[in-house]
Structure to design on (559 residues):
């Protein structure tokens, strides 16, 4: 048994062998800048961080175990709780995987797909607004936080109107949707977009070119592209390092091939490519792209795929899910990065044998010891904020 | 679609590495021998025409009541925009003193570090030559591997009733 414990013994030895001039500091689990219950064990020399040992699992809710003990349909609410800031995106990925295994993904009506993309992009904006706002507050800027939450509230209200819930929606179902969009949703969404566009410019002006903000983020925590790939970083993390990698384009799932949008990447405008400022800026630019996507979705939903009185968004929802034994790995672009589900199905059952979720934050966080070493403690806060982790997804 | 990859592997290692190819899934799966895993992964990562430089996911699957575990590697090649699924089959009699064992690929893809720690923590798969193999999600003194199908919940943990 000793060999299986060797890793833990080595870790204890390492902590015990800290030299007298170094100090071990626990940052978290109840630290505001760790964005949840994350504990970072720092070995410091004065203000310098010598080493970082992240400790996870404070929010472990056994998603994999739940998913393999209940049917696919019942698992959808659990996927909402992975990255609880972008529940729509999580359930979209999960549902898409099950639909592909069932072989019904090509039959889903276009109206349903456009509604899915619309709500996912709304949720992406909400998630990025949290990322930008809380990043501001980590750095010491309070106003952007209030502005972001004010604008996010409109999105929360709209999604609540559609699904009946503020954060954890269970709106996207296998083969369809919970309900069609409420009457008047498109107009309200348009009103929100026309309200939000100038606000976004304001937010960009307030933070992006702010000298204090730049000096706290530019050239800090530079993540080179090869390191980012090797550590499995995805989403805005990878794009900020200069790699144009967006699964909405690469995998071309749902109706994204019919929609025009750009993929913003980090250009190193204020410092090196892949620094904290780039990661922040990529998120701001992505919000702009999401606004653009939403406008196109609204156009199509009001012209080609209009609301019909006899349209039933639950028409294709399977009565009983029976998937032949197979394996499938579905991946989708979440606000945080690549969300994946690995399904292993078993015969004559609507309960999978195994569902492994690959959280983007889990992988993005694993690079922190690499880029945080040798930085100041205050810069570590800035790096951690720029990674934009959600602990619900790190611990799952 | 998979043939060119298999050919390149055969060129380098001979026929013995790839045991078989499962094509009944939506994504074809290469089943490879655990002994050659590390060399194979390095080859897949660094060879021109392959460049599987991004490890998306590692998942461990328990095939209880069979005495079999599987480790599934989902690779992505960012330059060529393609995916590959590798699988290693491990036969083990579920004796707690003899965990199923597979070489660690953490030196090929650093992201494998945490994925392998998770598989060790929840499924009880031992990754040899891993730089820092300890539990990641559960407490360090937890007993057993909860994602195994034959796992029984303990009655209590440090005096806290669980059931």
């Amino acid at each position: 048994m000793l060999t299986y414990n060797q890793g833990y013994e080595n870790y204890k030895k390492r902590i015990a062998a800290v030299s007298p001039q170094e100090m071990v500091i626990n940052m978290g689990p109840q630290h505001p800048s760790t964005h949840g219950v994350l504990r970072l064990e720092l070995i410091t020399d004065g203000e310098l961080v010598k080493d970082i040992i992240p400790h996870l699992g404070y929010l472990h809710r056994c998603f994999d175990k739940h998913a393999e003990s209940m049917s696919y349909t019942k698992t959808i609410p659990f996927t909402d709780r992975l990255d609880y800031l972008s529940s729509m995106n999580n359930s979209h990925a999960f549902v898409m995987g099950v639909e592909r295994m069932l072989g019904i993904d090509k039959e889903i009506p276009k109206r349903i797909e456009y509604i899915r993309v619309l709500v996912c992009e709304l949720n992406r904006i909400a998630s990025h607004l949290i990322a930008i706002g809380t990043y501001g507050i980590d750095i010491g800027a309070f106003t952007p936080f209030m502005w972001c939450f004010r604008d996010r509230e409109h999105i929360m209200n709209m999604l609540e109107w559609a699904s009946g819930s503020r954060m954890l929606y269970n709106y996207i179902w296998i083969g369809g949707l919970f309900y069609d969009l409420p009457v008047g949703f498109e107009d309200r969404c348009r009103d929100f977009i026309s309200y939000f566009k100038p606000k976004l410019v304001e937010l960009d002006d307030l933070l992006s070119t702010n000298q204090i903000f730049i000096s706290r983020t530019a050239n800090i925590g530079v993540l080179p592209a090869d390191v980012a790939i090797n550590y499995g970083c995805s989403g805005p993390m990878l794009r900020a390092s200069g790699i144009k990698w967006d699964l909405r384009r690469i995998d071309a799932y749902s109706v994204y091939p019919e929609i025009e949008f750009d993929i913003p990447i980090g250009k190193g405008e204020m410092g090196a490519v892949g620094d904290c400022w780039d990661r922040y800026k990529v998120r701001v630019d992505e919000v702009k792209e999401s606004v653009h996507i939403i406008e196109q979705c609204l156009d199509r939903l009001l012209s080609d795929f209009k609301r019909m009185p006899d349209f039933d968004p639950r028409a294709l929802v399977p009565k009983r899910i029976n998937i032949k034994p197979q394996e499938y790995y579905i991946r989708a672009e979440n606000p945080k990065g690549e969300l994946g589900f690995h399904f292993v199905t078993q015969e004559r059952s609507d309960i999978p044998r195994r569902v492994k979720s690959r959280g983007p934050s889990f992988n993005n966080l694993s690079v922190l010891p690499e880029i945080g070493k040798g930085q100041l403690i205050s810069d570590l806060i800035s790096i951690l904020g720029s990674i934009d982790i959600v602990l619900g997804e790190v611990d799952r | 679609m998979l043939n060119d990859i298999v050919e390149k592997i055969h060129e380098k290692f001979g026929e013995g590495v790839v045991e078989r190819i499962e094509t009944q899934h939506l994504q074809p799966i290469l089943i490879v021998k655990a002994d050659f895993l590390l060399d194979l992964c390095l080859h897949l990562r660094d060879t021109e025409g392959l460049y599987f430089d991004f490890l998306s996911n590692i998942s461990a699957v328990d095939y209880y009541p069979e005495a079999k575990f599987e480790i599934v590697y989902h690779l992505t090649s960012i330059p060529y925009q393609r995916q590959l699924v590798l699988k290693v089959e491990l036969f083990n009699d579920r004796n707690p003193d003899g965990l199923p064992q597979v070489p660690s690929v953490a030196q090929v893809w650093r992201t494998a570090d945490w994925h392998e720690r998770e598989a060790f923590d929840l499924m009880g798969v031992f990754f040899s030559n891993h730089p820092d193999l300890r539990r990641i999600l559960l407490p360090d003194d937890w007993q057993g591997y909860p994602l195994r199908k034959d796992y029984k919940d303990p009655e209590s943990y440090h005096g806290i009733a669980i059931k």
About this structure: The first helix of chain A runs from residue 2 to 16. Chain A has two domains: 2-55, 63-395. The two ends of chain A are 28 Å apart (CA to CA). Residues 362 and 394 of chain A are 4 Å apart (CA to CA).
